[in-house]
Specification:
Strand order of the largest sheet: 2-5-1-6-7
Number of helices: 10
Order of helices and strands: EHEHHEEHHEEHHHEHH
Number of domains: 2
CATH architecture of the largest domain: 3-Layer(aba) Sandwich
């Protein structure tokens, strides 16, 4: 089974790309969606213990957590130590199910694929990219987003240029949705029949 890592900076079109993979019958696991689930489940008591007062009613209060993390790199590292192993466990279950179902390829959508040192755990890397001005326009249109918040988010991510340099495939999402869809269709077609080594190397043994 070929494991595709789908990544890209904030506002570059990962969700649209993921949807196109799904439309082609390729299952996608969204790491952000997994985190959302964990913030209402397994991660709640662990985060409350590490960051008292950041959970309400059995759920993580994302705004309160964001306030606790502002300007504190050590706090970010503590949160990652809690969340990343839980996300990895969910990914492992997903991949095992995909392999059991006989999937030829599958996608892990991981926004911080490079930043978290997980690029080796996939066989192929697809990076979505757009023009900087388009990125800012897309992200700033989101509720509650500000220039400062966006700048802080971008400061924690590799540059778009570096991500593109490390990609096996780059999907340019600057144009119409149909253009992005066509690029993804071509990527899927080019990968058919290829086998991967990442599943056996990283995902079938006990977590490190």
């Amino acid at each position: 089974m070929l494991i595709i890592g789908l990544t890209g900076s904030i506002g570059m079109g990962k969700s649209t790309a993921a949807r196109r993979f799904c439309e082609n019958g390729v299952a996608v696991l969204d790491a952000d969606a997994v985190v959302h689930g964990l913030y209402e489940g397994k991660a709640v008591p662990l985060i409350e213990e590490a960051f008292p007062g950041t959970t309400v009613g059995g759920k993580v209060d994302r705004q309160a957590l964001a306030q606790a993390l502002i300007g504190n790199q050590e706090s970010f590292a503590r949160l990652e130590q809690i969340v990343h192993p839980l996300v990895g466990a969910e990914e492992r279950v997903f991949l095992q199910q995909q392999a059991s179902d006989g999937a030829e390829m599958t996608v892990l959508e991981i926004p911080l694929l490079f930043e978290t040192g997980r690029s080796e755990r996939v066989d192929v890397i697809v990076v979505v990219s757009a023009k900087p001005e388009q990125q800012r326009e897309r992200v700033l249109s989101r509720p509650g987003m500000t220039e400062d918040k966006l700048d802080n988010l971008l400061a924690r991510q590799l540059s778009d240029e570096e991500k593109r340099a490390r990609a096996d495939f780059v999907v340019d999402t600057s144009g119409p949705v149909e253009s992005s869809a066509h690029q993804i269709d071509m990527i899927i077609e080019s990968l058919k029949g290829q086998s991967g080594a990442a599943h056996e190397r990283w995902w079938t043994k006990a977590p490190e």
